[in-house]
Design goal:
heterodimer, A: alpha+beta, nine-stranded mixed β-sheet, three-stranded antiparallel β-sheet, 37% helix, B: alpha/beta, five-stranded mixed β-sheet, 11 strands
């Protein structure tokens, strides 16, 4: 029998924020404790930076999709912002507090960040991030180390079916440059790609003054995702452009490589990425759980030019995915269940519809 | 049958969508026979209002879906991948008003602001913002044509396929805003994790 609940709401809290009560807090805390242990064991010392920073600190970085949303004035009239991520504060911290230190430097954090997003499940305006930054370890070596730690972190969080998408933020820009595409055309193409609008991408690429094979190549790379075999089979500039991803793949342990989806169309909307980019998926949840990448120019903006790479996981989303993985039925068939995922080692489920059989 | 869950819009795109799914080899007989059931386990089809399709696909409750470009433009903040123009359900998003003297232009000139009735408040607001004119957007849920006839608004923003409804109500198209048609959309995570199944469908669509 349904009972009628009567509550009187006394005080509201801001849209996109929420209270966490003991049952949830216990589970979140257990998860972050396990993650913290993995970070520590890998030599990534935990730091905390102020939630409030000067606006000009973030103005140094190209944040594109993650600009600060909340501002206050201090007693001197300076504009302060609630940090939209932890990567920029750590770049500042390295340049100021570790100005003389010998790289590589390894830092981790489990801290809140703030963005003006549309609130929904797993999308809070105040959200807890668990992440690392590896400073001063260039190229594929640094990227491979962070990817291995990313997988160890997701294992520790308790997720069984996660996958990590690996792309290269420099891939498309360098190809477009090699094809002499003017800046305006480049911009539009990258915007459509980041938005996942393939119809718009077809239109934008169709308008370029390039040869038909080049046009086909641009469209095909935007859609190609799969195993390491997608990195082979090309020649010339396109083959060279995939070199960064091949170098990373060569350095990955088998259990890490099995988790990777190589994705030549993966473009992050955070403007400071310069090379490898990652995104974390779980078949139990329709939204990425976290992301990361290589940002070799950002520290230079703070006066300490060092290559860097890192990732950030959204703890609330990890928790949602873990709960969904635990609760899923074995015969579910959409993203609501991991049964539909193409896990490492399983044959592709791309049989055409009339091949029969419900997988 | 595929292993994907497919969000199918009821309404104007319904029959075109079912025809497409038939040609893809997905059995729609049960869907055609039953207009009250919503979830068809065998084929993976779930049916819903067209404007709900992006909601289900964004959340991953459906892996892929079919909906109109008008819906996608109105809900442009949804994080879904727009995979292909399905080339049916063609229509135009237009600004229309009562035939004869242009009351919208008159209102803009003399009152500085025009009242626009629409089911697409965000598309309408964006169109007037981009064209540098002030508009008061009046959101209605149905029969938009009624608004300029009763004085609720000077003009409407709506989709037009054949133009019959406009003509029958004495309205004429004043401006074209966008071309719309049915689109195949995908959840971004499904697009990565179910790549083979989704690409198989795209290949079949391209081969048509």
């Amino acid at each position: 029998v349904a009972s009628r609940l009567t509550f009187t709401v006394v005080e509201r809290i801001p849209s996109g924020t929420r209270d966490v009560l003991p049952d949830e807090m216990r589970e979140l805390r257990a998860m972050t404790d396990r993650i913290r242990e993995v970070f520590g064991a890998a030599g990534f010392g935990e730091v905390y930076t102020p939630a409030l920073e000067y606006e000009q600190t973030f103005a140094r970085a190209n944040l594109a999709g993650a600009r600060p949303a909340y501002r206050v004035f201090d007693e001197h009239g300076s504009v302060l912002v609630l940090r939209p991520d932890m990567t920029v504060p750590i770049a500042r911290l390295v340049a100021t507090r570790y100005a003389q230190s010998e790289p590589p430097l390894r830092f981790s954090y489990i801290a809140h960040a703030y963005r003006g997003i549309r609130p929904q499940r797993g999308q809070s305006r105040e959200f807890l991030q668990a992440g690392v930054e590896l400073i001063g370890s260039p190229g594929a070596d640094g990227t491979a180390e962070v990817l291995a730690l990313l997988c160890a972190t997701l294992d520790a969080a308790g997720l069984a079916n996660y996958r990590v998408g690996l792309g290269d933020a420099s891939l498309y820009p360098s190809l477009l440059e090699a094809l002499d595409v003017p800046a305006s055309g480049r911009e539009l193409i990258l915007t459509e790609l980041a938005a996942g609008d393939f119809v718009g991408l077809d239109r934008a690429v169709g308008q370029l003054a390039v040869s038909d094979p080049d046009r086909d190549l641009l469209l095909r790379l935007a859609r190609t995702r799969g195993g390491p075999e997608i990195l082979e089979g090309l020649t010339g500039a396109p083959y060279e452009a995939l070199g960064g991803m091949r170098d990373v793949h060569r350095l990955l342990a088998p259990e890490v490589a099995d988790r990777i989806i190589f994705d030549t169309g993966l473009v992050r909307n955070l403007g400071y990425y310069t090379g490898a980019v990652f995104q974390v998926y779980d078949p139990a949840y329709g939204v990425p759980l976290g992301s990361g990448g290589r940002y070799d120019e950002l520290l230079g903006e703070f006066g300490r030019p060092l290559p860097a790479v890192g990732f950030a996981l959204n703890v609330e989303r990890l928790h949602i995915a873990l709960t969904a993985e635990e609760g899923e039925s074995p015969d579910g068939d959409s993203l609501g269940s991991s049964a539909g995922a193409e896990l490492p080692g399983t044959p592709p489920d791309g049989e055409l519809p009339d091949a029969g059989g419900h997988r | 049958m595929t292993s994907l869950r497919i969000a199918v819009p009821r309404g104007a795109l319904f029959s075109g969508t079912l025809d497409l799914l038939d040609r893809l080899g997905i059995d729609t007989a049960e869907v055609r026979e039953n207009d009250r059931k919503l979830l068809f386990g065998e084929s993976g089809i779930v049916t819903m209002r067209p404007s709900d399709v992006p909601t289900y696909v964004e959340a991953g409750a459906a892996d892929i879906g079919i909906t109109g470009k008008d819906v996608l433009m109105e809900q442009s903040e949804r994080e879904v991948y727009e995979l292909v123009d399905l080339d049916f359900g063609r229509c135009r998003m237009v600004l229309a008003g009562v035939a004869g003297e242009d009351r919208a232009a008159e209102a803009l000139r003399r009152l500085g602001v025009v009242r626009i009735a629409t089911k697409y408040p965000r598309i309408a607001a964006r169109h007037f913002l981009q064209t540098g004119r002030q508009a008061e957007i009046v959101e209605v849920k149905g029969s938009v044509e009624l608004a300029p006839l009763t004085g609720l608004a000077e003009a409407i923003v709506d989709i037009v396929a054949t133009g019959t409804t406009l003509r029958e109500n004495g309205l004429v198209v004043r401006e074209e805003i966008a071309d719309c048609s049915a689109r195949l959309i995908a959840n971004p995570v499904a697009h990565k994790l179910r790549a083979n199944a989704i690409d198989a469908i795209l290949e079949r669509i391209h081969a048509m």
